[in-house]
Amino acid sequence: MEERKIPHNLILENKNRLSITQVADVDTFDEGKIVLFTADDTIIIEGYDLHIQKLDVLGGELSIEGEVVSILYTGREGSNRGSKGFFKKILK
User: What is the pLDDT of residues 37-90, one digit of tens each?
Assistant: First the structure.
């Protein structure tokens, strides 16, 4: 039986505000790069002066402000799921 996937949404406004839903965890972040996980993908966001404005891991919502230059989906193979994400490390 095929597993039903929950879709995520990614909204980029004027290259300076990004909203993503269904975020499972944030792996790393700094002003130039943010690496996050959804259920099916690893997403790498690169840019300048990037700041996380809102992170709700339980609700799966992430809001980022700053100049977004690239958004890269690496898929399951590109993820490092064996390691814990940044916030899971802190909260344990």
Answer: 998 899 999 999 999 999 998 899 999 999 999 999 998 654 454 455 555 555
Of 71, 80, 21, give the one whose Cα is nearest residue 45: 71
70/91 Cα distance (integer angstroms): 29
Taking the complete model, does pTM exceed 0.85, yes or no? Answer: no
8 Å CB contact between 25 and 59: no
Contact 25, 37 (CB under 8 A): yes
Rounded to whole angstroms, the Cα distance separating 32 from 18 reads 14
